[in-house]
Amino acid sequence: MFKKILIANRGEIALRVLYACRELGISSVAVHSEADENALHVRFADETICIGPARPLESYLNVPAIIAAAEVTGADAIHPGYGFLSESGYLGEAAEACGITFIGPPSSVLRLIGNKTEARRVMKQAGLAVLPGTAEPPETLALALKAARKLGYPLILKATAGGGGRGMRIVRQPEELENCWKTAKQEAAVAFGDGSIYLEKYIEAPRHIEFQILADHHGHVVHLGERECSIQRRHQKLVEECPSTVLTERQRRKLGRLVTSAAASVGYRNAGTFEFLMDDQGQFFFLEANARLQVEHPVTEMVTGVDIVKEQICIAAGQRLSFQQKDVNWRGHALECRINAECPETFRPNPGVVRVFNIPGGPGIRLDTAVHADCTIPPYYDSLVAKVIAHGIDRAEAVSRMQRTLGMTVIEGIKTTVPVHLKILADPEFQNGELSTAFMDRFTVV
Amino acid sequence: MANFDEIKEMLDLMDERGLEEFELEREGFRVKLRKRSHAMPSSKSEVVVEKSVADGSGEALAPSEVSVDDGLVKVKSPIVGTFYRSPEPESDPFIEVGSRVKKGEVLCIIEAMKLMNEIDADLAGEIVKIFVENGQAVEYGEVLFAIKPA
Known about the structure:
The complex is a heterodimer of chains A (446) and B (150).
Chain A: E1 4-7, H1 11-24, E2 27-33, H2 40-44, E3 47-52, H3 63-73, E4 77-79, H4 89-97, E5 101-102, H5 107-114, H6 116-125, H7 141-151, E6 155-159, E7 169-171, H8 177-192, E8 197-201, E9 207-215, E10 221-233, E11 236-242, H9 249-265, E12 270-278, E13 284-290, H10 297-304, H11 308-316, E14 333-340, E15 352-353, E16 356-358, E17 365-369, E18 376-377, E19 384-392, H12 395-407, E20 410-412, H13 418-426, H14 428-431
Parallel strand pairs in A: 1-2, 1-4, 2-3, 4-5
Antiparallel strand pairs in A: 6-7, 6-8, 9-10, 9-12, 10-11, 11-14, 12-13, 14-19, 15-18, 16-20, 17-19
Chain B: H1 4-17, E1 21-26, E2 29-34, E3 45-48, E4 65-69, E5 72-76, E6 81-84, E7 100-101, E8 106-112, E9 115-120, E10 125-130, E11 137-138, E12 143-149
Antiparallel strand pairs in B: 1-2, 3-4, 4-5, 5-12, 6-8, 6-11, 7-10, 8-9, 10-12
């Protein structure tokens, strides 16, 4: 087992990894930017190293600084969290070269899965249905137009190297393609350093369903069931839940089997998530795989009782999975609300000093946050303030627990999206489980 | 022997002049007073020198930031690594307290990922204080030296 883990991230996920380190008795190193000197995970880590100024490129995305920090502290493993360098083949390779374990899949798998067109090709070979799309990213507008004619409309343009909703454009009419092509390319080049775009058939109002897997280094792959993340605004997830209201036991078993064998076929190791879109006919199409821990992992943890971060660490340390597929049970229902420091009407970011921060506890409530009263939310990073997770014996109880928790939440000093979540939870369609990625269209004013 | 009043006078002088260390030797006795240095150097005015991310190519690096405090310029580390005072273990240190340095002169080496990065002086002056020990791990922004500008 590792003696010392360097946490290459910040905010609530750095704290989450710190929890696992403490529970496992592993020493922790917090690397941080100058803006995060007083962050909660920095205060509680065993060692801390400032790795750069606030700008992510010079700090949390700075591979040499992170590796140097691991070297000077003698860390034997790095946990990359989510976002930042968590899917970076570069960090994975650099760590491997220095004899430091990267807690995640091997860098070769990261590179494969991180390339969206390659991932689709490989998953198709493994037996997963993929959305019709271009096998290779078209290099010119003319080729894109040709591919679009073949695919038909509506279609979506996506960044080959990307995610998180950037470099994406929905095209409903042929006349829109040229403009969308140009802006998507530019956005992708800026966000991911790679302007290549692929085309994919677009399903109107699909449901977003994803499967969580864990794979050890001894060939065992298990799935922990699905999460539904259909409540999204501009491709950013707002509310996630486990299990999905529409999956039958049979569908779960079938998809679970397909996903675990697809993962095994690419030599997947550690934690990962396979994302699907479900159309109104109940058909599932592979969308993309995320070769890392996901933001919404807590809902799976609440329902299955598995501590995914601890499993990640144990797997990376070479241990066998301590359970088999037949041991995985799903108990009750869990919801997660991502509370952001954004104006609830315009969704514009609202960083600043938090004066009052009180989110109640009580039965079935879990809070993942690094924010507290008198802390400053810096403007340089994402606006996530807290993940509030509610678990209940069934979905109705989980919803009502979430409503009473958010209804009694007091946060002052910054604006947050708590009112938006309360609106979502009170919505009759939401309560009936009638979800799709078009759900938030009704809520968006701007 | 210095009496209590004289020692108090020395302490007051240190505060007035913003000195970290004071040493006095006379008639066979020596007194050395040293202030506990704080991790966070306070500075009234700061000049930030923007430098791109360390490329670790072994080239000379300018310090990440120089801060000015009571006439002394503080040199801070631009990267994470291990601090070395000499080019090689057996050789003499690049500089000592009291050394006069020219602009661009190498002050120390910070090793990161097996690459030796030379940190050079951004200005000419005299080394008044060295804040870190040979072989110590340093973080981004760690104060390394105080230079009295020429």
